[in-house]
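FAQ: What does the model actually see?

It sees only this:
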Amino acid sequence: MRWPAEAIWEAIAPLLPGFTVEILPEIDSTNTELMRRARAGQAEPVLLVAETQTAGRGRLGRGWHSAPGASLTFSLGLPLAPADWSGLSLAVGVSLAGSLHPAIGLKWPNDLWWEQRKLAGILIETAAIGSQRHAVIGIGVNIAAPPTQEGLATPAAALQELLPGIDAPGALLKIAEPLVRALVAFEATGFSPFAARFQVRDVLEGREVVLSDGQQGTARGVDETGACWCILPLACSASPVPRSACGPALPLKPESAMLRLIVLLLLLANGLYFAWSHGLLQAYGLAPVQQTEPQRLTQQLHPERLRLLGADEVKRLEAATAQSSLPPRPTECLQAGVYDERQATALRQALDTALPQGSWEFENGVEPERWIVYMGKYPDNDTLNKKLAELRSLNIRFEPLSNPALSPGLSLAAYPSEAAAKEGLAQFASRGVRTARVVQERAELRGQWLRLPQADASLKQRLDNLKAALAGKALRPCQKPSTPAATPS
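And it is asked to produce this:
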């Protein structure tokens, strides 16, 4: 499989300084590996992908089955310091579902469902590194249908049923950057901004569930902290319940004296309203005011000017009101490149038909040359994995390669010039690296950058259909071009 490691790294590195991407053919568990590193004091943000897991784990210690190509299994480790951790798994689920397909539902607290079957699972663990808290977010997605459903606690769904032709690398490219942006937002604001988006995908909403103490109730969504709510038949009110117990077991106890008093007051208020509205309290001077049609007409300023609206007019007014009440969509500037003249011409033709006029532009610019401290080329992945282990023992990080001709191999660092790379090589040699050398990973490229100055969610969704025209170039936050010369669309 060909993984989009460079495109993911280019998109996420500006959000997480020091971020790296690692792709391994096999490991016991990506979550277990990142927790081992965290306990050893390695706090750098990293995305670890495994084509096969031999001991994958889910919630409550359950196993997660994975096979090459049939599933996507990865873990994201990063320092995280939200004011309140409540609802983190729900926020992750909201991001995943939003990146993959509108039809995907969310089952509290950590599953993605489709048509009553489990599509993906989330496992979150944390570890203390000094004064920091390090989070490891493990995600498993079924890409292809399993050969058998035997031995599964829940029937499995496959992403290829929703998105025919998608593979694990393609799913990872859709998921990775939005997931990191969701985690950055969660750290700043908590779960509250995600609650409404969770609510529209909540598969437990309105369903009968069995509580852990044997009672039955009806699930009623989550609150702003991510806590699950349920209504019991014998109690006319909702009660929050521990998040670890929801779906399908919700421990609720309605025997509180205060709860009974509230129920009694509600019944009394309903009885009084019924008596008042039907004139039963008129003898006591309590009754609704009786109005006739002439009285209502005299209260109108100009009743003769009233006009009934037609169905088309009502629809136009409703549409205008709804549009004016919508908050402005958040936007950001994105760019991709560089493109030669042939690629830019083909891309222009695709953009002309797919995107609104004025939403994009091309700029002349330069992609500078890139020199790296390189180790390789290795004969096979086993040799590569041994070298990875040696580098970790020296506490040396590595980066994904952008030049396929150098794979399998490793980049220890990237530099803008050969001289700077040679200085870097000397520093690595002083730390015990003996087999590295300086190579040019990419020559200087001159061409045109595609810029989208105000890309919102709708525009990004349209761009997903233009991957072929983008020629594998990743969209990333705009930077000041080397030679600014805008050519508007």
